[in-house]
């Protein structure tokens, strides 16, 4: 799903289900768990995120000097933090905090570098008494 995220706005829920080896009903339940009221709202949101994501400013060219690489990396981090700040409301943050306070078990599904970050996150949550399972193998992410 993440590797082909740019295709999601063009897919019906049935086609999305077919490509992820699940049912359309499971997709709709998943979308609702993410906080969307329906599949079209989810597709619209994904489309907006992709539209606002400008990768061209961060592309690295062969032979580019080190200063340019450092500047692009720093700018990328700044832009990601700004974008997160714009997207995250106080209401959503409070809901996340409430959910984290009331649960003892967390499941994190992640790939590649994100899996390493997830493992670190699991370690941090274990310090406050939360039991976290990180699923990073593709066959366990069903």
Automatic annotation (TrEMBL):
Stretches assigned to the HTH rpiR-type domain: 1-53
Superkingdom, taxonomy of origin: Bacteria
GO molecular function: carbohydrate derivative binding; DNA binding; DNA-binding transcription factor activity
InterPro entries listed in its UniProt record: Homeodomain-like_sf, HTH_RpiR, RpiR-like, SIS_dom_sf, WH-like_DNA-bd_sf
Recorded coiled-coil stretches: none
GO BP annotations listed: carbohydrate derivative metabolic process
PANTHER family: GLUCOKINASE, HTH-TYPE TRANSCRIPTIONAL REGULATOR HEXR-RELATED
UniProt-recorded name of the protein: MurR/RpiR family transcriptional regulator
Lineage, uppermost ranks: Bacteria, Bacillati, Bacillota, Erysipelotrichia, Erysipelotrichales
